[in-house]
Write a structure and sequence with these properties.
The chain is mainly α. Helix content is 68%, strand content 3%. A hairpin with a 2-residue loop joins strand 1 (13-16) and strand 2. Helix 2 (29-47) crosses helix 5 (85-97) and helix 14 packs antiparallel against helix 15.
């Protein structure tokens, strides 16, 4: 429903951010779902934009979707098992905006849906919800087994978000490492970003290889993960330093070299500039 359509209604409105929201929403289920569908599509279209105006619009829509999903939570849970695949898909995504962890089980169950769109939206919903108690096994299975790249990307997003919120990744660590070899740039980047939070010493060999990735966003996340592991674990400091130093020397693109040098400086706690010999001596004398 557009702002103009909202303003024309006779029901009370409440201002949420810059957008008016229905205080009492007695529309038919189909109208509510259609509204959610349209707003989710707009939200998706602006999510990756770096434009400030687009991000402002995205935040407004996110507030609206949150209010609408909270208000109609019971209905959305019912519609998540509708006979219509499209309705199931809309409901699963909308449930993620609710912020209510009671819907985690509904979204996990939807991962067994035979329709790819429903699975994709359930994974997106799990990522939006970011419940740290989410069972990660079914999400990790989608990450490494789904034939569709969009499904794997949504699974990576769900894992990254839930791990960032405190989920324990131990049981899915092998899947995270394997996904660093995925053909999709977004999958690799989000998995590397998850390892920034949960990576340990054993992840350094895989992350070291990711420092040579062709996608800059993967290099950035992997370098941050290597540096964080080296900073947090004394026994991993030397391996992390050498991985960052070697990649800094061997890469020839300026963007990746800049990222690697920045993380190398953060790990060292100092900056020797372009003095390669000083960097090499420091990195290779560490145990």
């Amino acid at each position: 429903m557009s702002d103009e359509e909202l303003a024309a209604t006779d029901v009370p409105l409440v201002q949420m951010g810059d957008r008016p929201v229905l205080l009492v929403d007695d529309r038919e289920t189909g109208a509510i779902l259609a509204d959610l569908d349209g707003q989710i599509r707009l939200w998706n279209s602006w999510t990756l934009s770096q434009d400030d105006d687009a991000q402002r619009k995205r935040r407004r829509i996110e507030e609206y979707l949150r209010a609408l999903s909270v208000r109609h939570l019971d209905m959305l849970e019912r519609e998540a098992t509708s006979e219509s695949p499209r309705v199931r898909a809309i409901a699963c995504c909308a449930l993620g905006f609710s912020g209510n962890d009671r819907v985690t089980g509904t979204l996990i169950a939807a991962l067994d849906d035979p329709v790819v769109e429903v699975v994709d939206n359930a994974l997106l919903g799990l990522g939006l919800l970011a419940d740290p108690d989410t069972p990660l096994g079914p999400v990790a299975d989608a990450l490494v087994q789904a034939p569709d790249e969009w499904t794997r990307s949504n699974a990576a997003y769900a894992l990254k978000r839930t791990i960032e919120k405190g989920a324990t990744p131990g049981a899915v660590r092998n899947e995270l490492r394997l996904a660093l070899l995925d053909q999709n740039d977004a999958v690799r980047a989000q998995v590397a970003a998850a390892l920034v939070v949960c990576g340990d010493e054993d992840d350094i060999p895989t992350l070291r290889d990711a420092l040579y990735d062709s996608a800059p966003m993967v290099v950035l996340a992997s370098a941050m993960a290597v540096r964080r592991i080296g900073s947090d674990t004394d026994t991993a400091r030397g391996a992390a330093a050498r991985a960052l130093f070697d990649a800094w020397q061997e890469r020839d693109d300026k963007r990746s070299k800049s990222v690697l040098k920045t993380e190398l400086s953060r790990l060292a706690g100092r900056n020797w500039g372009d003095d390669v010999d000083e960097w090499r001596e420091w990195a290779y004398r560490l145990p």
